[in-house]
């Protein structure tokens, strides 16, 4: 994997346009050039490969988990799947590839994607947050090193009025027409 990433970095170097960076690797290479005289060299090929690998691993896991849950939820809610399919065929068609410009014409699809991400709440799988010193918040004391994994996306007590959800079994489909 390291050799593959180094090969991609070399390809980026050969086609780099500093006035038109395409992606993370381009931005990193530009920063490497501007920071090359810095004694505390942080922007190195080694760090670029390590960071790219970390991003690849993290995105692979979250993407695969999201897709698995999306498929399960779409199987569970066939009426949602049917509306998604209708919107996708109406906006994109059967023989076209989707593009970013299509997104603004697909509010139902966008809502379902956001709802799937809220529903599975990947953030609880990730890194917990902690405070570095004792914190007084309202009438509560949050002690130093207290770890918190946020579940705000699924907390009924957090919202002033419960939000109707696309994938909530108690929601009536007409609410989203």
From TrEMBL:
It is a peripheral membrane protein. Its main location: endoplasmic reticulum. One of its GO terms (cellular component) is endoplasmic reticulum membrane. The keyword Transmembrane helix does not apply. It is found in: Endoplasmic reticulum membrane; Microsome membrane. Keywords: Endoplasmic reticulum, Heme, Iron, Membrane, Metal-binding, Microsome, Monooxygenase, Oxidoreductase. InterPro entries: Cyt_P450 (IPR001128), Cyt_P450_E_grp-I (IPR002401), Cyt_P450_sf (IPR036396), Cytochrome_P450_fam2 (IPR050182). GO terms for molecular function: heme binding; iron ion binding; oxidoreductase activity, acting on paired donors, with incorporation or reduction of molecular oxygen, reduced flavin or flavoprotein as one donor, and incorporation of one atom of oxygen. Its EC number is 1.14.14.1. Signal peptide: none annotated. GO terms for biological process: organic acid metabolic process; xenobiotic metabolic process. Its cofactor is heme. Gene3D superfamilies: Cytochrome P450. It holds the Pfam family p450. Belongs to the cytochrome P450 family. This is unspecific monooxygenase. The gene is LOC107149734.
